[in-house]
Amino acid sequence: MELGIAGRWAVVCAASKGLGKGCARALAMEGVNLVINARSKEALDATAQELRELDADIEVHAVAGDIGSEAVRTAVLSACPRVDILINNNGGPPPGDFRDWSRNDWHAAVEANMITPIELIKATVDRMAVNGFGRVVNITSGAVKAPIDILGLSNGARSGLTGFVAGLARQPQLAGNNVTINNLLPGAFDTERLQSTLKSTAKNTNQDLEQVREERAQGIPARRFGSADEFGAFCAFLCSIHAGYLTGQNILLDGGSYPGTF
């Protein structure tokens, strides 16, 4: 399917690895010019070169730094001639027991996973509306729909973003001007973050890592983990000309793990 977005410009956050990189790869293969961001300059520059090799006709600019910093956000947006597509993504806060979290822990989680994407949305969507095209995809978590007790910081902060988007996406001045805002909720994808979680589980339970990995995969109806590339492909479709009638939605990609109807 021709997605109709070749020549567009996209900002992709946390794009040096994992799901963010999967989204950047998918957009690059559709001929989209990119401004990518991540904290590690070395990893980000390597990813930028990989993306350029996917399509010699696209431009790829790398801006390293913490996207939670106003100065970094300004630099990222300044590097993008025109933001047609915004992929909000950021690492999640650590797991734990809410009894151990301080006020500062909550502030950090909300800043990273709610306020920062809102600031980027605020800086871009009105111009998208003037241009008559805009796509915002927020990468959140399957835990927004099926909360996990040890991920309270993430549950809270990402649910706050979800609630905000539910109202904003339906504003006629955005939806009526071909600007869509949707959330992608990943389940278990084969990323470094998942590997770290599996290693921690294996260590804490004195189990073999491969055994833990297999048991986790078998607990998913699809009997496997998702890949970053298939996540990216779905993200790219949401950014396409074919997805203009889809907005304000929370789309769960979890191999069937969520057991509910709605």
UniProtKB/TrEMBL annotation:
<dbReference type="InterPro" id="IPR036291">
    <property type="entry name" value="NAD(P)-bd_dom_sf"/>
</dbReference>
<dbReference type="Pfam" id="PF13561">
    <property type="entry name" value="adh_short_C2"/>
</dbReference>
<dbReference type="InterPro" id="IPR050259">
    <property type="entry name" value="SDR"/>
</dbReference>
<dbReference type="InterPro" id="IPR002347">
    <property type="entry name" value="SDR_fam"/>
</dbReference>
<protein>
    <submittedName>
        <fullName>3-oxoacyl-ACP reductase</fullName>
    </submittedName>
</protein>
<comment type="similarity">
    <text>Belongs to the short-chain dehydrogenases/reductases (SDR) family.</text>
</comment>
